[in-house]
Design goal:
The structure holds two protein chains of two kinds.
Chain A: E1 4-6, E2 9-13, E3 18-24, E4 31-37, E5 43-50, E6 55-58, E7 61-66, E8 71-76, E9 85-92, E10 98-100, E11 104-109
Parallel strand pairs in A: 2-11
Antiparallel strand pairs in A: 1-3, 3-8, 4-5, 4-9, 6-7, 7-8, 9-10, 9-11
Chain B: E1 4-7, E2 10-13, E3 19-25, E4 31-38, E5 42-49, E6 56-57, E7 65-67, E8 73-78, E9 87-94, E10 104-105, E11 109-113
Parallel strand pairs in B: 2-11
Antiparallel strand pairs in B: 1-3, 3-8, 4-5, 4-9, 5-6, 7-8, 9-10, 9-11
The chains are: A mainly beta, B mainly beta.
Chain lengths: ~110, ~110
Amino acid sequence: GEDVEQSLFLSVREGDSSVINCTYTDSSSTYLYWYKQEPGAGLQLLTYIFSNMDMKQDQRLTVLLNKKDKHLSLRIADTQTGDSAIYFCAERINDYKLSFGAGTTVTVRA
Amino acid sequence: NAGVTQTPKFRVLKTGQSMTLLCAQDMNHEYMYWYRQDPGMGLRLIHYSVGEGTTAKGEVPDGYNVSRLKKQNFLLGLESAAPSQTSVYFCASRRTGTNTGELFFGEGSRLTVL
């Protein structure tokens, strides 16, 4: 299957941590991704994780992968107003294709 | 280095009209894609191309045609626009031989069909 599911909205207070969750269905996926879309712009790769890893940390970003449950999460520490965006989870289906979730709109409030 | 450029950025069509969206990339990427983005549905793949002169159908190809006559360009055509094709269209590209498979996206083309 190629379904990627994620919640649609998340509201977080500035300075708190944000956690965005995603589930995927293709157990053979080699790479899983988080893309960020700022208002009026295209998507940009934020981070990715290879399927043989459980965790990846990159500055304020932490990606956790639970292969048994096919669950991926993105934690943003010390969330800032510039983090307000839509975050897309995606899995690599094959060499040509990625399957994207519907996107989680993150709103950072003061 | 412009990356991926889409034209036009906005367009309003009447039902039944035709139009072409142009995507151009200057990164010498082999693979190119057209997605549509609709609220609550995320990105859905319309068509893609793995090289000059080749195209393939994605998840939602009906009502669209594509062409890849030059490596740097990928055209998306609507022969007879319908209101259901109101959407934001994104072009993306990536190079082969990369393990991560990162896609590079254009800024999007917002199409409204009345």
